[in-house]
User: What shape does this take?
Amino acid sequence: MSPQIAPSPAAGQAIADGLLDAERQRFHELQSWFAQVYDRYFTDISAPKCIVIIPSLSVDQEILSKVNGYVYYEERLLCLLMFLRMPLTHIVYVTSMRIDPVIVDYYLHLLPGITGYHARQRLTLLSCDDPSSKPLTQKILERPLLMQRIRESIPHNYPAYISCFNMSPLERTLAVRLGLPISGCDPDLLHLGTKSGGRKLLRRCGLPVPLGYEDLRDEQDIAEALCRLKQEKGGLRRAVVKLNDGFSGDGNAIVDLRACQQLWSWPQWLPSALQPVAADLSYETFIYKFRHMGGIVEEFIEGEEKRSPSVQCRILPTRQIEVVSTHDQVLGGRDKQVFLGAYFPAHPDYARDIGYMGRKVAEGLRDAGVWGRFSLDFVSVRTSEGWKHYALDLNIRKGGTTHPLLMLTGLTRGTYDVDSGDYYTANGLKRFYFSSDNVQSEWFRGLTSHDLIHIAILNRLQYDGSLQQGVMFHLIGALSQFGKLGLVCIGDSSRRSEAFRRLTMQVLLREGKLANGYKAST
Assistant: This one.
């Protein structure tokens, strides 16, 4: 037998490139089919269909690890169980860890017009039984038998597609191996949603952006960009450095421009002046990631009265555009860079304006071939002439404002009207909400999913379908270990939704203290 000769590196690369090209071609075929049949199957309430939900957070895992209970963020897309209100729709939901049945029941009992039993027959829950920090999609790809079970869970001859949190090459590979399209952006176009790509696209769409520079690669680029900022805007006090693929503000760092008066000495002063926003993320790690991802430097917008609104849009496979929401975001952390929650809809002074700006960006993305959900964040400053809006971050994925809106839509079958800046239920009533993924207290630790549901029922913190108001919880699985959960407080006015939020916090803190006090006394 003649000895086998290993292929040369060049030959190996050629094979890899060929496989990737074949994957891209097959992915485009699947996406093209999805666009052709979308209206026939996936917008018809009575049509048979299957949705495979893969709530993977396929992002930088080191930055993601700074988020408490991040593995339970896979539960946020349980809002998509509202699709089970369509009587012939099946859902396959895959997670890293098994979901407590009480959490699933909590969602199913809210379905309008459908019994929980009927919905449960059309829901398949699958798990990797793997709590590791790897993205869920990677875990699935490493388990061929699990992929086989996913395929077998799709009813025979049912058209199906994948719904995921965000797109990456991992999701494209999974789509091709499962033979299913994805309701999301082609990974080859995701550069448009990076911090650098986003700034350039926003400018092309005619939106104002903060003074800054993109396509930076290392410390020297950062230092030179800071010097240019100081030269162009001498009174500037702070700047923001952003990783191209950062998210929720945890990929940002704040630079105090007053820390050094001599512009030429920035390279020496940078380590002491640059402060990463993410907890426990060192300067060295941030710079290492910057060299890997690249990023931008831009001015920190100052103002006596500032707000942080956002607009969320949807580009359908049929190329139609929908402006689906506006929000006023609640930010926290260092210099208020981290997303904590949001009020819906955005303030009436500017909801319509940012909605129209979102539509402009949607048109630009659509022309570039993008479809799926995206959001656009602003920083808005009140001036003597009204609100001035600066477009900041373009996120081509689902986000922190997606699941609350999907929950509201599923419960009320309503729509957002971009021209009025209001949300109307199916029977024409306005609705508002407060939402957060970061309701957290040490007193909540030890409360189980069962405890939370019991507390909610006893204190009437449930969503009332007859009134179309009340409180919905999510991230419930993170409660016991991390003392953390999410909520959506829906009301017929912003004041009412805020009252639900205050009442919920009072009840949870009281019950958490009672529970922990009892444990301490025994």
